[in-house]
TrEMBL record:
Designated name of the protein: Delta-aminolevulinic acid dehydratase
InterPro entries: ALAD, ALAD_AS, Aldolase_TIM
GO MF annotations in UniProt: porphobilinogen synthase activity
Pathway assignment: Porphyrin-containing compound metabolism; protoporphyrin-IX biosynthesis; coproporphyrinogen-III from 5-aminolevulinate: step 1/4
Organism of origin: Svornostia abyssi
NCBIfam families: PRK09283.1
Annotated keywords: Heme biosynthesis, Lyase, Porphyrin biosynthesis
Protein encoded by which gene: hemB
């Protein structure tokens, strides 16, 4: 047999051959575009730590959502910055809250676009934690879950197509599913932030959402980055409680977790390509150290290859344009 008998390069020779045998494909339909909506804003305000991302007024959010939809992106994920914050995070479950108002406006303008409501109290509490505090400053799990369920119903009432709890309280998926069903929203799916790690990559998001904890950190409820088995257990528990989609956050440092959760649950898996991942690429590209387009498409493809069916990314609009080119 002549050497070498196997030549894998044969199928790499031309773009057409490479495309024919490509194993993992990236499409705008795989993406979700996250947006920040701020109460009282008349236009948009740039976020310094996230070049190209702005805090939006409701009218600007409607426009931004329409641009994403026109690019083939099927869904937006909304985060709210309220006019006022308080210890109970009341703006999260106010039927006239910023995300509720933005949801109604976006659905009216773009009825075929999916609107996903993030469910957490950190953007709405004056202490920046994801739930209610006890007298000793601990986050109380069960009373917080009640408010997350209340928030979920309020968002569904406003027209949210998917509810996405990101708080990492124990039992919140089951409580949200029960509350939605009881209020007549049994058809509204839950996309659970199942494996949300206590990550260093969230810094720019906290700047964007003004949600940095006033004291301490979130390690008592978000996951230890060292734990993979626990991430799988968290996902399985969310499936048992009624989650329709499970999520891993962040994405790139946890590709192994994405793969394991996909293999174990068989459910659609979302991965959040978070603010720090976005900001690092932007900074390196601005410094001329790498090609932004090639880097983003490679990173998003790797997330899909690891098993993610859905990728949430601030690069969604740019990625959609690049894919279509």
């Amino acid at each position: 047999m002549p050497f070498p008998a196997t030549r894998l390069r044969r199928l790499r020779r031309t773009p057409a051959l490479r495309g024919l045998v490509r194993e993992t494909r990236l499409d705008p339909a795989d993406l979700i575009y996250p947006m920040f909506v701020e109460a009282g804003l008349s236009a948009r305000t740039p976020i310094g730590s996230m070049p190209g991302v702005d805090r939006l007024s409701i009218s600007e959010a409607v426009k931004e959502a329409g641009e994403a939809h026109a690019l083939g992106i099927p869904a937006v994920l909304l985060f709210g910055i309220p006019a006022d914050k308080d210890p109970e995070g009341t703006g999260a479950y106010d039927d006239e809250g910023i995300v509720q108002l933005a949801t109604r406006a976006i659905k009216e303008a773009h009825p075929d676009l999916l609107v996903i409501g993030d469910v957490c109290l950190c953007e709405y509490t004056d202490h920046g934690h994801c739930g209610l505090l006890t007298s000793t400053g601990e986050v109380d799990n069960d009373s917080s879950v009640e408010l997350h369920a209340k928030t979920s119903v309020s968002l569904a009432r406003a027209g949210a197509d998917i509810i996405a709890p990101s708080d990492m309280m124990d039992g919140r998926v089951g409580a949200i599913r029960a509350a939605l069903d009881e209020e007549g929203f049994s058809d509204v799916p839950v996309m659970a932030y199942s494996a949300k790690f206590a990550s260093a990559f969230y810094g720019p998001f906290r700047d964007a959402a003004d949600s940095t904890p006033a004291f301490g950190d979130r390690r008592a409820y978000q996951m230890d980055p060292a734990n993979g088995d626990e991430a799988v257990r968290e996902a399985i528990l969310d499936v048992e409680e009624g989650a329709d989609i499970v999520m891993v956050k962040p994405a790139l440092p946890y590709l192994d977790v994405i793969w394991r959760i996909k293999e174990r649950t068989g459910l659609p898996v979302a991965a959040y390509n978070v603010s720090g991942e976005y900001a690092m690429v932007k900074a390196a590209a601005a410094a001329g150290h790498l090609d932004e387009r090639a880097t983003v498409l490679e990173a998003l493809t790797s997330i899909r290859r690891a098993g993610a069916d859905i990728v949430i990314t601030y690069h969604a609009k740019d990625a959609a344009r690049w894919i279509q080119q």
